[in-house]
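Lecture 7 notes: from sequence to structure.

We start with a single chain of 434 residues. Read the sequence below before looking at the structure.
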Amino acid sequence: MKQELHLLCMVALTGLLCLSKPTELQAQTGLGLRLGQPEELSLTLDGRLTMEGAAFLPENKSNYSWTSKPGVTEPLQMAPGMMISQARLGLVLGYKKWSGRIDANFSGNKVSLTDICIRYAYSEQGNISLGHLFDPISIGLNTPSRHNSLAMAAPVTFLTPAVRHMGITLTQWGEKYWISGGLYAGNISSTLAEADYASEGYGVSARLAFLPISTESQLLLLSAGASTRTPERTQDRTGSMLFSADASTAVDRHKFVQTSVPYVQRYETFTLGAAYRNPKFFALGEFLLNNVGHAPIAGAVPGSTIKRGLFVSPEAYQTYLGGYLTTSYMLRGEQRVYNRSSATFRNTADEIEPGGNLELMARVSYLDADEGGRMLEGLAALNWYPNKYFLLGLNYSYSAMNRYATAGGRLTSSVLGGSTFRLHTLQLRAQLVF
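Now the structure, written as tokens:
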């Protein structure tokens, strides 16, 4: 009931702003409203709505069972369905070189605050941001969801557990380069202001992009990122961290590839990526690696006595790795635009052909989570963009996971020694952005 009330309030706010009597209306990246403010002051409303429907066909489904809670095991169920996977509203206030943003997001059947920041543009190609944002680390992670034509690749969601953090970010770019980095504390949702709790976590992240080719007809982007952090503040005082890969659709909540590492002292993420675009073809690939430094379970001392910090030498390491390659060919219209201020790509061109653009996409991804399982996934998609604000997509994916991909022991097989779990998914995706 609470989630529905929050969503209703968001819709009501949109209605009030749209019914207000503006003296000037702009529709560019968002809805600009002039409500009698000084000319230097601007208020922009933007948002996105994504709906997904999916059907699943697990191979040899009868061989598997699922433990929903301790002592309760039942046959594995992956039922088709449709849902609102994301609904977001954002307000951006601008005054001369200053701007501020507040986003409210409905996802996973709950409402939360996402991007919240104050930004100062010290030049036309540089700014400083203070607030709650994604760390600059990966092309995939740093691409806004409004510009994602596909769900995030599993290696990104598993190997970049660095969600949004409170911190300060410096970003500078030029014709051939882009660089961003900063210092970051904890996450809004995990920072509990209660007595006698461990540190909320802190870290450093940076990403560098270079454009050896940058013309109107061709663009080549090379990217590298790194992050090192201490664990987030959680209710678990042992400092354990859960790493998990999201499914290819929000309709399914099973996270088959996952693992938990206790007594984490610090963790490090490294990324290497490259992207190429010409008027018809686009390709994006990234390799990701995560090193998790921890104290051995047998010798760990419970509680805050475990040494954590960026300069602590962990007693042991657990390494996970993976990567993905996405390709796109425009059957109708031109390819997506490069965003120089974020070193990412939008999902549409500046101009849409009459009748819409038509895109054929393919992606292959691989994740090696060691004892948490391995996964190989192939995906094909057909996307139609009737204009810059709407997307309709049809996706098919095939996922193959080894016998260790058991969702932390909740998926069990009746086959002696376990078996490879294979899954076919057909998905319909509709998105509105404004």
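The longest strand covers residues 41-58. Keep this in mind for problem set 3.
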